[in-house]
Amino acid sequence: MARTGSSKSKIMLMALVPLLIWVFAFEIIPVFQMVVMSFQNSDGLGFTLDQYYKGLTTSLYLEAMKNSIVISINSSVAAMIIALFVAYSITRFTTGIRDQLLMVSNMMTNFAGVPLAFAYMILMGNNGALLLLLERMGVEAAGSFDLYSQTGVTQLYIYYQTPLAILLVYPIFYGIRTEWKEAASLLGASTWKFWRYIGIPVLLPGLLGTFSLLIANALGAYATAYALTGISFNLLTIRIAALVSGDIFPNFQLGSALAVILAIIMIFSLVVNELMLRWSRRRGT
Amino acid sequence: MSHDTTKKTKGLFWHQAVIALLLIYLFLPVMATLLLSLAKEWQSELVPHHYTLQWYVEIFTDVRFISAMGRSVLVSAITVIISLMIMVPAIFVIAVYLPKWEKLLQIAVLLPFAFPPVVTAIGLIKIYSSGPIAISGTIWILVGAYFILILPFSYQSIRNSLRTIHAKDLMEAAEILGAGKITAFVQVILPNILPGILISSLLSFSLIFGEFVYANLLVGGSFETIQIYLFNKMRTGGQTASAVVITYFILIFIISGFIIKLGRWKPKEYVASTIAKGGE
Amino acid sequence: MSYVKIEGVSKYFGSTKVLNNISLSIEEGEFITLLGPSGCGKSTLLRAIAGLNDLSSGDIYVGDKKITHLPSKDREVGMVFQSYALFPNLNVFQNIAFGLKMEKMDKEQYTVKVEEMVELIDLKGKENMYPGQLSGGQQQRVALARALIKKPKILLLDEPLSALDAQIRRTLRNEIRLIQRKLNMTTIFVTHDQEEALTISDRIFVMNHGDIEQEGGPRSIYTSPETEFVARFIGNYNVLKKSELETTGARLVSENELFAIRPEAISIFPLAKEGHNMDETINIICEAEVVMSTVLGNVMRFDMDVKGIGITVDALNESKIHWIKNGMTVQIAIPIEECKGLRIPS
């Protein structure tokens, strides 16, 4: 091996070539191509900021962005709150039950997109079984519930974000060590004071990180809303897909510009996640 | 003492209630779908009155359903196998011999998180619908895109498997005992990372099986996967669609079961590695 | 004729030098130890001998053969790793047999040899167990057997005991030494534990910052450290500058600037004149205040203050020293011949 190291590592590098080619062909070049297109005019020529201008001034697209962001934040907040309660409860059970519950959460993350939209139609669509039940129980609001509205779509987003949020929040809770609570109570801290001064500050970076991951997850989602409402519900992903799938007038350049905007919003939330991770790591938790 | 225990059981009761509510919340849509798939008909009633298996019979005798299933299995299997053949050697080489490349690999692996399928699809359609590699509308563009989609999962699990077995030490030990690099890899590394690889393969498999965005945007009707089939069925026949959803759910359930089984199969060195860590 | 010869070996990682032109030689059947703190280069040197690291310059010979450029598998060395590195998918028997299988030896032939080895390491009846079912000590025995079965020319031990608890560590240490003697196996042992090094080795090479600071038998390394690093690393020596030693009243003729004094070489007496009858021509006698005393089992350690200079004194923990109390002023006697002049490493 000695001093022939460099030629050996050249052979080693060969093992990376297929992966590199693949990543370039199906990830880097397409993304690059998209960025290039976003600066072209609608005939695919020249260099122009028109597409961005159009994307950022047309009310249809502005509303799509707003809807995407609002629905992402709302569903992430709701899923986080559910996950906080559930994850804390999960830590209270024995290891066996804990593993099973996590496995159920893991399995349910697969129940998203088209099957989920369909199941919700049965449950809460027009004449949905759950709505009928609620109405008979005297819940008036059930009668006016519209699954195909923003409130309805948000329900689906909350549903598929919840298991993911549980899977992400649980390990953070698990990081709170019993010895800390014991140490704090020996030092005279009440339960409330423990959470106020130790528990929450320790959990916070992880929770904020999880939150930004959920936001990114919701921002990029397309299948669920599309399966439920077709292209009628105005989300950024649905607008982008409609612009490139060519049903009406395909406009790759405008689609690309919107996609770049979406990617920037997502990268922003992922950067927040990374910063939060670093913050919590630096403090050694 | 007794006061303490009642307090504890009372606490546990609340936790059980929380979990019960969660399970109801998560399984309610599945249950509703299951009822619909077994109902003779179900309209404006709380629960159906007559039950039947006819919708299952219908889909399992429908050639279109069977072929859609077949296509989904095919594209998932091809992608997972290619991914393993490329990823296992690449990650192994980086982990053991070229640790400097790890950062670059991590970036490549994280990119799919920043660029969701809707975004990547634009470039893919543009590049592969014409020109030298016109594979748009075929299975191959899906394989290409799905490979990237499962990259984070396969990377994570292969990397973790290599880490738990101390792959570098094992390779060195084997080589000092006279094994060549390839023999050492095949006899010592591969058998020990197998459970981890299988788990990641199953996860990837179920991920691809449930994928809709690429399938819809890149191939659409020309390569009807199970998700596209379901999407089309949803509009025409509600009850057959519910049978499809339940079939899909059972499949996920079975795959999850395998994953649990494999996950319990701990690497045999488990105890030793924790001891070794303690000494460092 | 030395059996293992290392000549002018250097190793850079980027621009950091981890091995600085190291040369050493080892006799056949000798047990030598590379001792030093983490990052001193000891493991890098060991791994270079095994062919797991390449070298920037220098050569390694075993017997008469230059092995500098040979791949690991052709070097005929055996190695035991800190993490054991047992193959988790193979049982005890298969782990030990692995090296022989690689030589394409027949099953009948290697079964006999493996059984011999299993007996040697005292694990009879455990052949079918997997590494995960064994204790740390048992795993390390298997690793030892696996390394020895091919009758390697040298046995390399990379901190093999550091993951074990104190009790098992001592037993296994003695066993390794017994087996090594029995097989007359040339052995290179790497450790950061000076007690381990002193008890197990024929010769010790103390390493620091990629250099060998001192080599010698355990006794000479312990009693005659040559540098400040060795004095501090090996045994809690008092290391004093010439000027500090002179404030205690010493008149020294030596050229050295630094001196090391073993704590147990110093004796303590009551202040009263009749308290001692030491010869002031061969002892430095001075007053000292007892700052702190610590019980270290059979030894008491006293931290003393002599005119602002801290000096540690060890004494056997017996009733005749129990008069010494914290805060007391006492007299201490430092034998002048125990003030070992230290070399300043270049």
Automatic annotation (TrEMBL), chain B:
The record ties this protein, via PROSITE patterns, to:
ABC_TM1
- Please tell me whether the keyword Nucleotide-binding is annotated for this protein: no
ABC transmembrane type-1 domain location: 69-259
Subcellular localization, per the record?
Cell inner membrane; Cell membrane
**Top-level division of the source organism's lineage:** Bacteria
Q: Which GO terms describe its biological process?
A: transmembrane transport
InterPro entries for the chain: MetI-like, MetI-like_sf
Question: Which Pfam families does UniProt cross-reference here?
Answer: BPD_transp_1 (PF00528)
- Keywords tagged on the record: Cell inner membrane, Cell membrane, Membrane, Transmembrane, Transmembrane helix, Transport
* Annotated Gene Ontology cellular component terms: plasma membrane
**Membrane topology category:** Multi-pass membrane protein
Annotated transmembrane regions: 12-39, 73-97, 104-127, 133-153, 196-219, 240-260
Name the family the entry cites. Answer: Belongs to the binding-protein-dependent transport system permease family.
Query: Could you tell me what this protein is called?
Result: ABC transporter permease subunit
Q: Which organism is it from?
A: Aquibacillus halophilus
From TrEMBL, chain C:
Q: Which reaction does it catalyse?
A: a quaternary ammonium(out) + ATP + H2O = a quaternary ammonium(in) + ADP + phosphate + H(+)
Q: What EC number(s) does its UniProt record assign?
A: 7.6.2.9
Asked if the keyword Zinc belongs to this entry, the reply reads no
- Domain ABC transporter: where? 4-234
User: What SUPFAM superfamilies does its record include?
Assistant: P-loop containing nucleoside triphosphate hydrolases
Its top-level enzyme class, in one word, is: translocase
- Organism encoding this protein: Aquibacillus halophilus
Instruction: State the source organism's domain of life.
Output: Bacteria
GO molecular-function terms, A-Z: ABC-type quaternary ammonium compound transporting activity; ATP binding; ATP hydrolysis activity
Q: How does it assemble?
A: The complex is composed of two ATP-binding proteins (OpuCA), two transmembrane proteins (OpuCB and OpuCD) and a solute-binding protein (OpuCC).
Query: What is the protein name given in its UniProt record?
Result: Carnitine transport ATP-binding protein OpuCA
Question: What lineage does UniProt assign to this protein's organism?
Answer: Bacteria, Bacillati, Bacillota, Bacilli, Bacillales
